[in-house]
């Protein structure tokens, strides 16, 4: 498959109901069934307060997530937010651990579904008087978990929605029945008995309350998964914030009354909820329901547990596959993962990879509880990162703020972020293995990134920034391009190209004029250099106005122009230097610019163009290559910038001898496809030309183009030359030429 056909645009098909269903599916049920017992055993009835406080923290975090998701309505969640605001390495780190956390969460829910499913079957067999001894086989739980994961993966590959809406409605209805039954039981109990059940409210003091918060916060995790599938949500600016808040509110509307009735009427006379939970933390919800509703209450909780684990597994599989999809599109994971199915545009490969990892971990994880704690720790850290990123985005995008702005800024991200960090620290101390697992996964990811993905991911990142300059501002960068101009006739073309490289909205264009004069120059005795520079400055200002570029100007006095350019570039820490050149000298004749190239530690773009040449709306660009060059990052940036400003028809050309074997020709074509994909996303022509005179072949193709891009030749650590190839091309064609030199 050609690189430009790896992926196509996804369709937005998820409405408010479906998006809310993703959050409800992940939040409601599984967490409270697994963690209510631990919370009650730790702090007694004040576990209700612990869940409520966690709900407040969750709402604060959801507000920051909603703001970020409205600004960046794409799939990937926290990874996507990080990619927009942080470096590609930091974004990979966030994406890598969030993907892992979602996969581990899916593992836990798969095993939870299988566990409660077996309990359900065992109870059915007991009621029917059947002796199904095979239900006691230990291998059935992981086996059922894997089968369920595979079936859910298949369902996610054949339909476009996250699914699970019927199961969501079913489990919410079951919980509602349990809550109503509990409230009915409370009304039949004396007020004194009810109040006594809540005493002592803090069985372990404030420290116990904080511990319970740390243990149970993850029960509210799941709203973030809505952001992870944001690229498929309709009207995301409005839908995602509403769905996040709604899913959390629905969860809290179930959790608070359920926990309350468990305390009030869920235990035997004389027994506290703390002691009951300590005896059976995993089954406390079912035990409590059986106490006030009889056997039917127990059955209702088991059914709710099965449905809850199922929907949570489905939601995490759905979201984790979209995180992998987003990372693959940015080339921080293999690009094959970003392939979408024809017709429905479903990321089938991503679903297969994610579900396969879930199945492997079901069998491979020696300590599932520690892995779950690691997942909780990672989510808390990434929630804190999301709060921090929301502050950065609010500060750096004043010109285009997010459509949804969270209220009470900056209190929301500050309080929410500190709370998440505090709970993460608690989790790391309470379960040291969680931190160890997170470190091991991070180390593995770092190794894979550096060995397999780094170059391609960084090139993709450079292209993204060039195509969307707002990313520079979001990352806190204000790039500066230095444009020394001595010949005003080229001012229009130079300024236009400079603004293409660094748009005024995110960076600065500095036009440099140099008064070339000896060290003992006396302006009063020899005013000619001053008069000349005044004329140059006047033309530069006029050209800036014509181009609509608010360029800055700098005039300096120096005996050596090239040394002065290098000095100013270092002093102002320029990202790039744009130079103009009338002609490139013949081979064997050194040029001052070549000496300058070796002194500059910035990216350098040299333009040789006819008088009054302009960047046109439709540009045919030829890029001759001879393999992997050393200027890929600058070439990617230049092509991305040009494509942003105009409709570019780019052709990558590789010339090989006519006696090249078929095997070598196939290899060269594959290399050219990969190079074109890395540098321009594959949206271009690629031609491998059989010709024994590479220069003549390139000149022939250059005459058909409006611009040709070449690279300088490196002959040493600090020496760069135009090279014979560049000189010959420039000498034999009148086509405008850009010669690029990557920093370093």
How would you sum up this structure in a few lines?
The chain has helices spanning 16-27, 30-43, 47-71, 78-85, 88-128, 140-158, 165-187, 191-197, 205-216, 224-228, 236-265, 273-279, 284-293, 295-329, 348-364, 368-396, 411-430, 432-467, 470-474, 491-501, 528-547, 561-571, 592-599, 632-645, 662-680, 694-702, 723-732, and strands at 480-484, 508-516, 552-558, 576-580, 603-608, 618-625, 647-656, 685-690, 707-711, 713-716, 719-721, 737-741. By secondary structure, the chain is α/β, with parallel strands linked by helices.
Detailed description of the structure:
- The chain has 744 residues and is α/β, with parallel strands linked by helices.
- It folds into 3 domains: 16-453, Amino acid/polyamine transporter I (Up-down Bundle), CATH 1.20.1740.10; 478-613, HUPs (Rossmann fold, 3-Layer(aba) Sandwich); 616-736, HUPs (Rossmann fold).
- Helix content is 61%, strand content 10%.
- It has helices at 16-27, 30-43, 47-71, 78-85, 88-128, 140-158, 165-187, 191-197, 205-216, 224-228, 236-265, 273-279, 284-293, 295-329, 348-364, 368-396, 411-430, 432-467, 470-474, 491-501, 528-547, 561-571, 592-599, 632-645, 662-680, 694-702, 723-732, and strands at residues 480-484, 508-516, 552-558, 576-580, 603-608, 618-625, 647-656, 685-690, 707-711, 713-716, 719-721, 737-741.
- The strands form 2 sheets. It has a 10-stranded mixed beta sheet, sandwiched between helices.
- Strand 10 and strand 11 form a beta hairpin.
- It is elongated, with a radius of gyration of 32 Å.
- Residues 618-740 form the UspA domain.
- Its main location: membrane.
- It is a multi-pass membrane protein.
- This is Serine/threonine exchanger SteT.
- Keywords: Membrane, Transmembrane, Transmembrane helix.
